[in-house]
Amino acid sequence: MKKYSPVTTLLVLVATATAWGHDVTVWPDQEGKDVKLRFHYGDPGDYQPIEKVRFAELAVVDSKGVRLNFLRDIERGADNKVVGTAKLRLGDWPAGTYVVSARYDNGLYVHDTENRAIATSREWVPQAIDSAHYQKFSKALFRVGTPGGGFDRISGHRLEFVPRGDPFAVKSGTSLPVELQFDGKPLADHLVEVGDEHAASKGPELRTDSKGVVRIPLNRIGAYRLAADHRVKSHYPELFLDDDYTASLVFIRQ
């Protein structure tokens, strides 16, 4: 989701304009029981360089609730705008719904008095006009065989999408309720971006209701990509003033 924050791979942006920041999304590339995970930083059509060393979490929870870690399985992609995994080693692949959970730590950045983004803290640039720690939380759902429970599993991210219906079972032409949580509590009246693998946003603007729930129209077959951002005050103001979070959720209807 676009908002002002630093670009991943540049230590200093010499341009006077602030750089656009983005979400990290995980895409399950599935052929039967063979699943590979593919990660992108940025909006579809405008992906930015991504670094595997910045991943602090990658796990898959299977349909029986077993959590398997795959952080060491992340590999470089064909270019610097994609990283991913080989085929996941998930044994016999029990039927049901799987949840992918990832965290990407984009580090500390400040903006100096000339609005240049610098990868450091306020300790070294005390006159910074903006400073934050940027973390990107990603989830994706996929299924093997008949979908089952587990679509609403909570990963424990500070900012997180939690489906309140099964995206693989809800009928086309209806809507899917998805709750947006911050620190485990509903985040009300908050903008949610809904797009697909080609565009970050499609259709009218959507916001969560008073209970933190946004209703996603299921009006097509294919990929759905949800994104949101949220900024709160830091516990370490001597280093950076804000914690800057983005969250994404991907699922593919067939």
List keywords for this structure.
mainly beta; disordered N terminus; single chain; 5-stranded antiparallel β-sheet; globular; 254 residues; 9-stranded mixed β-sheet
How much of the sequence is in beta strands?
Answer: over 45%
Cα(first) to Cα(last) distance is: 25 Å
- List SSEs in N-to-C order: EEEEEEEEEEEEEEEEEEEE
Assign the structural class, choosing from mainly alpha, mainly beta, alpha/beta, alpha+beta, or little secondary structure: mainly beta
Mean pLDDT: 90
Number of strands: 20
Number of helices: 0
What best-fitting shape do the alpha-carbon axes yield?
globular
Low-confidence stretches: 2-20
Main beta sheet strand tally, sense and closure: 9 strands, mixed
Q: Report the helical percentage.
A: under 10%
Radius of gyration: 18 Å
The domain tally reads 1
